[in-house]
């Protein structure tokens, strides 16, 4: 049990460094990294763990996922899109395009005729047996 | 206890040497998204090993009986059953795609000849029954051998159907579907020691279910604030105590763990114990909260301790001491000076799991570059091993790996900048009693065993 009692301050690099290590390697790497990040994305908010960050995580959906692909520093205002049309319109406005393009495979069938279930593209087909079982 | 991987001393006590046993999965360079393994879990006896993948499929392996004529080949795991557990769905009301990725699999303790497991994706939990069929009835009165119905009026004699042996068939059937109880993404499920109930946790809520009842569940934790602007933390993992059926814990994105007792109130928003390691305020940085987020929490088999995994370390907590962990093990401390790029490529949000060995004397967790780390709690030694095809000769010993944090790289060391951050080992499992481990490396499942000395 004495081994465990020795572990008062077990790790060298956790948050609770002693005064000495603060000057050495403990804090400097993290702070240096923070400075690097702030230099790249000046508009990054002060509180990364704050509500807008978490909201992004909670509302992860099709169109929100796409919006989160934008550089993290720029989307500090969390935009939630109503549907694909909404998203594409917003994207079009940002890029100043005349005609917003629809999502990848969505418009293959609609427009000319009434689609049937057989016509629609399969969204995902993972009905193949797993290769682990091969 | 430097984080760069210990000396050549293997973990697990008794001079354990880990050897390659098997690898499952394809060798292609191009990995299909659906083949990425998302969860690995041994059952209570260790005879069955289940994996779930991003394509919603479950594959179960069974350990072969040890062959007396080949005493060196310990029981190997071969495919027992495979089925499509979840399929992609679309929530039309919210315009949200519901991924079929299996987030967690948890086995139920075996009560009869069949095996039961719970598997969950972001929204729906399913109870699967896996049963064997090795007999077939022949000689029905109302049916022909090919299944066609016979005309009842033509039947002049009765016969008793006989059971005849047939090739073993393993069938998986969904027995319960627990749906529509989670607004946010399910991150954990945990079977209670009462074997009747289980919990499911999403980002903001935890629900208690009865295994027999699918149309109702009790909400036992709700941390959703009245005003979402005030949201400061989310639930990241939850687990029932292994022996006390009234106790469970849940971890948060802020690095804290709350232990709740269901006897105290129906809604366990007020914790019974609150585990948090004090932080030195002067060491706080932009990354502090992100890397303190707990990605996994696991009780020890004894029920006396629990282990948490955050981005850079694994901590062991004594349930009787809330103000700090009793052990902290560095997994890959050399990444602290890479946090900026890890934030940019999103790796800083990777959710690593951790696991105990049977006697609770060793713990294991994954890292990058297909490395995984083991810590022996008794000898205080740790080792870094690699899951790779290069070390996949049968019973080949795994050589300890070393990462050079910076500066001069010694021979056989790999520098931090050469690490492949796409090769992440997020899911590992340890056999409940033996020294057999299953390590998921993207689309491949590695099984390692100890070499008997």
Automatic annotation (TrEMBL), chain A:
Basic and acidic residues: compositionally biased ranges: 16-37
Query: What GO biological process terms are annotated to this protein in UniProt?
Result: cell division
Output compositional bias ranges, type Polar residues: 123-134
Cite a single Pfam family from the UniProt record.
Endosulfine
Q: What is its main location?
A: cytoplasm
One cellular component term from this protein's GO annotations in UniProt = cytoplasm
- Locate the region Disordered: 1-52, 95-134
Looking up InterPro entries in the UniProt record yields:
Endosulphine
| Keywords from the named record | Cell cycle, Cell division, Cytoplasm, Mitosis, Phosphoprotein, Protein phosphatase inhibitor
- Give the location in the cell: Cytoplasm
| MF (Gene Ontology) | protein phosphatase inhibitor activity
* Family indicated by similarity: Belongs to the endosulfine family.
Described purpose of this protein according to its UniProt entry: Protein phosphatase inhibitor that specifically inhibits protein phosphatase 2A (PP2A) during mitosis.
What this protein is called in its record is Alpha-endosulfine
From TrEMBL, chain B:
Q: Which GO terms describe its cellular component?
A: protein phosphatase type 2A complex
Region: Disordered; residue ranges are 385-409
The protein's name in its UniProt record: Serine/threonine-protein phosphatase 2A 55 kDa regulatory subunit B
Which InterPro entries does the UniProt record give? PP2A_PR55, PP2A_PR55_CS, WD40/YVTN_repeat-like_dom_sf, WD40_repeat_dom_sf, WD40_rpt
This protein's record includes keyword Repeat: yes
Presence of keyword Signal: no
Keywords tagged on the record = Repeat, WD repeat
């Amino acid at each position: 049990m004495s081994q465990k009692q020795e572990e008062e301050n077990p790790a060298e690099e956790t948050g609770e460094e002693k005064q000495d290590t603060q000057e050495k390697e403990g804090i400097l790497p993290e702070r240096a990294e923070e400075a690097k990040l702030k230099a790249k994305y000046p508009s990054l908010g002060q509180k990364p763990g704050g509500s807008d960050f978490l909201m992004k995580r909670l509302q992860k959906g099709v169109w929100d996922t796409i919006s989160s692909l934008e550089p993290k520093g720029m989307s500090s205002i969390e935009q939630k899109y109503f549907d694909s049309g909404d998203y594409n319109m917003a994207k079009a406005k940002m890029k100043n395009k005349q005609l917003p393009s629809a999502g990848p495979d969505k418009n293959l069938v609609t427009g000319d005729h009434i689609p049937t279930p057989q016509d629609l593209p399969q969204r995902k087909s993972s009905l193949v047996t797993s290769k682990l079982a091969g | 206890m430097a984080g760069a991987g210990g000396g050549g001393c293997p973990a697990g006590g008794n001079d354990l040497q880990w050897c390659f046993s098997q690898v499952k999965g394809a060798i292609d360079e191009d990995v299909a998204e659906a083949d990425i393994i998302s969860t690995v879990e041994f059952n209570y006896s260790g005879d069955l090993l289940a994996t779930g993948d991003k394509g919603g499929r479950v594959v179960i392996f069974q350990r072969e009986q040890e062959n007396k004529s080949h005493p060196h080949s310990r029981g190997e795991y071969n495919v027992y059953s495979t089925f499509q557990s979840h399929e992609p769905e679309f929530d039309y009301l919210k315009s949200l795609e519901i991924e079929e990725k299996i987030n967690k699999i948890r086995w139920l303790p075996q009560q009869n000849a069949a095996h039961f497991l719970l598997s969950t994706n972001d929204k729906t939990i399913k109870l699967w029954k896996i049963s064997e069929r090795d007999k077939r009835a022949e000689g029905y009165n109302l049916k022909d051998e090919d299944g066609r119905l016979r005309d009842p009026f033509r039947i002049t004699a009765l016969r008793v159907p006989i059971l005849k042996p047939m090739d073993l068939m393993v069938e998986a059937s969904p027995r319960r579907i627990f749906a529509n109880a989670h607004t946010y993404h399910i991150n954990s499920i945990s079977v209670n020691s009462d074997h009747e109930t289980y919990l499911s946790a999403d980002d903001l809520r935890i629900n208690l279910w009865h295994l027999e009842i699918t149309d109702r569940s009790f909400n036992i934790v709700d941390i959703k604030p009245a005003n979402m602007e005030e949201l400061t933390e989310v639930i990241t993992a939850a687990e029932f105590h292994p022996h006390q059926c009234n106790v469970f814990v849940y971890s948060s994105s802020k690095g804290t763990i709350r232990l709740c007792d269901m006897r105290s109130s129906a809604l366990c928003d007020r914790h019974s114990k609150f585990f948090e390691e004090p932080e030195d305020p002067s060491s706080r940085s932009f990354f502090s909260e992100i890397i303190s987020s707990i990605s996994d929490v696991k009780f020890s088999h004894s029920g006396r301790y629990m282990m948490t995994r955050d981005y850079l370390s694994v901590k062991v907590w004594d349930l009787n001491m809330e103000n700090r962990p009793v052990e902290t093990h560095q997994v890959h401390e050399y990444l602290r000076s890479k946090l900026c790029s890890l934030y940019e490529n999103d790796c800083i949000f990777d959710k690593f799991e951790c696991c105990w060995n049977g006697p609770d004397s060793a713990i294991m967790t994954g890292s990058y570059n297909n490395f995984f780390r083991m810590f022996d709690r008794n000898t205080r030694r740790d080792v870094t091993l690699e899951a790779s095809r290069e070390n996949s000769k049968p019973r080949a010993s795994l050589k300890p790996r070393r990462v050079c944090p910076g500066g001069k790289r010694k021979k056989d060391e790999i520098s931090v900048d050469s690490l492949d951050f796409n090769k992440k080992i997020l899911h590992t499992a340890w056999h409940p009693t033996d020294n057999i481990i299953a390590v998921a490396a993207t689309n491949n499942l590695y099984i390692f065993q100890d070499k008997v000395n």
